[in-house]
Structures are given as C-alpha cells and as structure tokens.
Fold each of these.
Amino acid sequence: MTFQDFNFEPELTEGLLSMGFKQPTPIQEQAIPIILNNHDIIACAQTGTGKTAAYLLPIISKIIQSKSQTVDTLIIAPTRELAIQIDEAIQGFSYFAPVSALAIYGGNDGASFEQERKALTHGANIIIATPGRLISHLNMGYVKFSQIKHLVLDEADRMLDMGFNEDISKIISFLPKQRQSLLFSATMPNKIRELAKKILNNPEQINIALSKPAEGVTQAAYVVYDTQKNELLKGILKENHKESVLIFSGTKEKVKEMERELRKAGVNAAGIHSDLEQEKRNEVLREFKSRKLNVLVATDILSRGIDIDSIGLVINYDVPRDAEDYIHRVGRTARAETTGIALTFINPDDQYKFKKIEDLIGSEINKLPIPAHLGAGPVYDPQKHRMVFNRRSQGAKKRR
C-alpha cells in the first residue's frame, strides 16, 4: 500500500512526495481510512509508530477539500515540545496547500500571547495547544470554537498523568457536540477508557502493540552505587565523544547538577527541563539537532514526541519509573533503521523497576562490568532478581 491509495487532495500528495513519504506505517494504514470516513477513534500507539501523520494527513486533506477559513481542528498535547513538533509536521505536510496552523503553549512573552489571540479570533485552520495555555485564552472570553470539526487528544495518558483531567474537560465544554474526536495514547489504562467514554461517539478501536526496542538498539546496563554514577558517566562520554548522546535523569534538579558536573569535566553538554524559558529550550534543541551540542541531559519531557535523528547513545542515568517509559527513552536512538546504544545505570533501589522493564521487553538485558578503578559495585543475582551490597567495598570507599 502507498499513500497515493488514500486519494488525498493533490496538494497534500505533492507535499508527501517531496518529503519522501511512500508507504504508510501500520497505525497510518488503519487510522487514515477511518478518519477520512469521519468516525471517532481511540488508538493505542506509542511514539515512533507514525501516529502524528496518522491523524494529521486525513485532517489536512479534509481541510483542503472544504476550503475552511475558520478554526477547523484543535489538537491538545501535553508538552510544549510535542506541540512544536506537531506544528512543524503540519508545515511540512501542507507546504503546497493553503492550510494554516499555530502552536499555543506557555512560557512565551506578551507578543506571542497576542499573536495567539489573533489566531484564535481570526482563525488558523489548526490550533495545537497545551491545556494550561489554551485555558488562559478561553478564560478571556474571545475564543470561538463553534466551527471545530476535529478534536485530537495526543498522548492522552501523559496528559492525565500530568493532572490535566479537569483542564481537558473544561476545554471540551467549549466545543460543539457534533465533531470528530480522535484519542491517541501510548498506554490504555482504565482512566483513559473512562475519558474515551465521555468524549468519543461510538469510536473505532486501534491497538498497535507496544513494540520492543528497535533491532538496531544494543541494550546493556551497569549495576552501580549512586556514588559511582558520575565517574562512570564521564568515562562513557569520553569513549563516545564523537556521538550525539541523550542522557535521561529522573528530576530536573539532577539534570541541573549533571549539566554543571559535565561542563566542569570539559564535556560539551546542556540540560533541558521545565525551569528553562521556552526560547532557551528551543535554542538547546536546535544546537543538539545540528550537532553543535554533543550531549543533552533531560527529564522524561523528551522521551516522548521529540523527533531527533542521529542519536548514537542513550543513557538512563536513573531507571525510569514506568517500564513503558524505558521503551520511549530507548526509542530516541536507532531511528529510521539506524543503529544505536542504550545504557542504563541500576542502583540497588531501582532493581525491581528494572526487572519490570526486562519482563516487558521479554528478555534479560546484559549487565556490563564497571571499570576496575571505580571499585566493586553491587552484585546482581539474576535468579533472585536482587542485588547484594558489597559492604566491604563501600566501607573501604568511605575510609578513603
């Protein structure tokens, strides 16, 4: 099957050909005909399956056909980064088509807020928004969504995890009841199904199973104490100094601390987290994408929805809280049939979380020996799935 089989409007097909799009992914093959036929959808599909194009392409084609001059589509996304990425995808797909879009998200200045206000009142065809920023506009009273034909909730599970349930309900109260609603989620817990019952009308269901890490990813782990992590990390970066490296940490405080430590060690590194101004975040991402920046340290804000190619190495400085997040983190490397390496640091407190990851992917991840100069680390018992503290080594380290 090819994209030409969907009979999109000619302007959209021309854009796809210029971008090198030939064959649809499974989520695109299943979702596009349903959306073109105006049915609601609840779809379980993780990052990297092509879900953004799965809903954008049929919507853009319908906007071209209808010659809409008003706000036709509202896409709600959990983070600024995902909103920006969706906006960039629209610009690419609609390069030859008269379709306008605007991303609305927090952290911008007054001029940006005024630009957003004009788009909401005079009409961009597609609005991509984070919940909090959109509600700020809705509370002003000038937003008119009476002509909305399509509502898309992207990464709905992440939005609910971030506490946006009430915000989503409030936003939906401003929309016409007669609309097409599309809900995409990487996981499908009960709270997502409850949300779907509230906003979807007799939806078609699509389930693209959570895929394992790409075959091109070499996965391995180090069993370490927290006191050994920084020196181990510096050694790995020194050996891989030519690679683009993405490091995931559990908190923004750790990201800031790690950025300082790596810069002191002469590593060309920068951190990205929620405390950064949006302009600075965009600048850091641009430098990383253009390879002016070798090492990017981030929280899980980048594990989903960020399309950065040519990342050779992903390091989980902390084991992710949820096993599914490991899949998303590791999925940042070995994209588009390339190869990459994913390393995880496991401390004694994270052993059970890591065991869940191995259960999810269906195989045990290779445990590498830590360099001798770091001293002995915990001993991982694969039979009991627990670590044994090497107390003699720890005591010796403290005495030194």
Note: The mean pLDDT is 85.
Amino acid sequence: MNLDSIKAFNENYNLPCETLISHAEDKVCVSLFVPAECSFFDGHFPEFKLLPAVGQFSIVSHLASKYLGLAENVSKIKRMKFSAPVTPDTTVKIELEADRKRKEVSFLITDADDSAVVYSSGKFA
C-alpha cells in the first residue's frame, strides 16, 4: 500500500490518521479518532448515528493492508461480533493479529480509554 492510497482512504472517509501504539511483524495496535464528519456516518440512522459494520470492517481491512502487508481484498469473513455502537467523535483502539499460516486476521475494536468496552471483534481471511 502506498502513501497516496493511504491518504486517499483517510480523505475519502474524513478520517484523521491513526496513532500507532505498537507494531510487530504479525500484530499491530492503533488508536483512531472517528469524527462526526466521517462519511461512514452519512445516512446511517440520522437520529442516532453509529459507525456501520461496513465502515468498521473497511477500516480494519485497510489497517491490515497498511501495517501487516495483507491484501485489502477480503475473501471470507469467518466471524464478526458487534457488541456496542461506535458513535461520532469516539476514539477507538484497534488491535489486529495475523496468522499467516492460516491466512487469517483477527481484530478487536475497543474504546481507547476503557478496553472493557468492546465495540466489535472478528476474524477474516
């Protein structure tokens, strides 16, 4: 993934750049502020805006490509669980771990200030 495509992704969805917390060969942890202006919120429950599943998954697959060198095209979602809504102006912590032997990525999205608040988790190939 090149710098231009990273900038384009963030600009297309009005997302600021994430803050890298930790990064190893097969693991990455970032913090990301999801502003109310993020276009993923557009049209998704006008009275109670929340970050839709497709938005969360787009962000996760983008970060897997950027930090773990994996293709952004996902062939199979093996498991996804949504436990709490991500509302506008929330800072999330996103943890990704690649199992290269199985060609899978696990993810966990929690509140940046309280990791007991789990927004979503899953696994994809």
Note: The longest helix spans residues 53-68.
Amino acid sequence: MFSRCIYYLCPDAYVSSIFEINLKALKAKGFKGIIIDLDNTLVKPRSQEVSEEVISWIKAMGELGYKRCLLSNSLPKRVQAFSSKFGIPCISRAAKPRKKVFLRALSELGTKSAETAVIGDQLFTDILGGKRSELFTILVSPLDKKELLTTALMRYPEKMILNFLNRRGLLKPL
C-alpha cells in the first residue's frame, strides 16, 4: 500500500525550471502533447506578467510540433488571459488532481496518455493527477515562495515526501 502511494506522488522527472526541460529529447521519446500548470510553474502566483522567455519557450514547443494545453485550478479570467498570450487552449477551475480534468485535457490535445507529459510545481495536484491519468510527470521547483494559504500549507508534507524520495534516489533529473 505504501509503495503504491509513493508511486502516485513520485514525479517521473524533477527539474529546477521549465527551461531545464529538453523538449527535443521528449519529442524523440514520442511525446506529442504537454499539459502545463500555470501558477508557480510558468508565472508567479497573482502576477499578471509573463516573461518573454516563457512566451518563447511555449512558442518553441509549438514549433517542435507539440500540442499544448494550460490546466489550472485558477479562475477562468486569469487562465484565459494567459491562454490568449500563449495562443494555446486552457482549462480553468480544474480541481486538480481529479483525473477527469486531465482526461479532458487529453481530449483537448487529441493525444493519448502514453504520448503526453504534464508539467507542474505541486505533488498533490499536478503530479498526483498526472500519475492517476497515466501521464509522464515533470515536477518543477516553484517560482515564488509567496503562495495561497492552502498551497503554502501543503508545501510542508510535500517537502517531507520530496526529501524521502530524494534519500531513496527516486527523484530523477530529466
């Protein structure tokens, strides 16, 4: 039972930043779609600004032929604003880690779970939901320490799990 729980919280890869993700290498492994979290993955929470570097990275994914979709628990107005800036579809108020919303994102992308990766900053939303949906999961370090109270509270058990995974050699770079 314990090992099964750890499986669902263990990302397939762990990187400090989205910019450490080798998009060409993922493409070579057969990935066609990427589901991306918004807050603390691409932009700081509560920020309305997005860096040109992030916009270029999203664009580079498209140039490599990736289908992309934002999947966020944030409110529609916020998510749609970034979706428009990036020129990609989005799903807001996702209530991650519900499997249903990840399957909806797959449907939006038109890809299968085996050829889709999910990128996010939280174990209990992005990684858990991705693993439950049989996606390749990539955990990134959060961009900012200032977070919503609920997220900040979840960072404590998350840190304990990450330390456990790291001690066991289960956190792997991409």
Note: The mean pLDDT is 92.
